[in-house]
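Render Iron-containing alcohol dehydrogenase in 3D.
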Amino acid sequence: MKNFELWNPTRLVFGENQLENVAKHIPAGTKNILMVFGGGSIKKNGVYDTVKGALKEYNVIDFSGIEPNPRYETIMKAREVALAENIDFILAVGGGSVIDACKFLCVAIPFTESDPWDIIKKGLGKKVTEAVPFGTVLTLPATGSEMNSGSVVTREGTKEKLAFGGPLCFPKFSVLDPRVVASLPQRQIVNGVTDAFTHVLEQYLTYPAQAPLQDRFAEGILQTLVEIGPQVIANPGDSTVTGNFMWCCTMALNGLIQQGVPTDWATHMIGHELTALFEIDHARTLAIIGPNLYRVMFNNKKDKLVQYGERVWGITEGSEEEKAQATIERTVEFFHSMGIKTKISDYTDNHSDVAKTITSRFEERKWLGLGERGDITLEKVQEIVEMSI
Ligand code: NZQ
Ligand code: ZN
């Protein structure tokens, strides 16, 4: 196990009826809250009214219209409102996109040195010294953004989708009330299962690192998602099941399971390009790329593939090679069983130059060696993307 330092300051407030208590967690002295949300799902499912009711003692200004895969351009409009209204606290009410938008917004508001896009583009996320505090009300279990300091923002003008993050981007609190899952379309539920599942694989499916506890945390999340994923799809109104689902998604990316172990994240980096280019849902890009990345990087990942196959899928027959292969196929079947398609051509016909476009972008950004060993070269990226068409 490698050395590590674990710090996570987000207060996680879990359970039924916690929406009604959101005001308890707003920092003392707050006057003007900017409530940021998406395209209106919270108005249809009652979350908006409940949260607004709970915050009746505060001056709350709405900012709606954050898109899935939040746009820099829209967040900059929110920044103008925040400055004009003297906002001293931000409340994100939504899924990963709304939360990620607020992470950028909170550091962009006080940033005056240059265009706030530089925070992302020039990697200043860890250097910024000021941020407006924010909390979240999660409405879509998937990304883990509610308890981490990362964010992914898209710039419409250049079709770039880039991640950034820093210590000031942890939410002060996040409210996880499982009742919110009831209104989610099935598409978003299966996206959530797939995203969380792949988050675990990015931090687990690397090489053995003498970290048996992290391995078992990871396998526990995978096994729980396999068990309850279909139950959530069948019964999104069952708060017992959906609460466990929420907790899996948070635990998959709140920093715990990555401590002391190597991590990959190349599936995400390639996947983000597919969303930027074709607007394919984030989770679906992972189901497209992940299995092909495991095929191309098979030798690197074989030992962990065997362990994952044995412990999560009960694959015990055959040689190590055969077990590792069967594990990849079983993972693809899992995605298919939830209705997730795993080829780029299932989503777009406009894919003739996709591998070249992605490798050129990576070359420009000097992303020349990705993955846990830094050996996913541009040639390997090209091979993975071509296999995925
Ligand atoms: O906009 P509204 O009307 O709210 O509708 C949303 C949106 O259309 C809807 N929705 C959310 N909660 C709902 C609901 N509909 C009905 N009932 C509810 N309770 O769902 C749609 C998708 O929402 P979105 O927030 O885009 O989905 P998700 O949570 O999957 O977030 C995806 C974004 O997060 C980034 C992705 O790249 C993508 O931009 N990620 C962020 C990460 C992080 N910060 O740690 C890690 C992830 O790997 C990921 O990259
Ligand atoms: Zn993800």
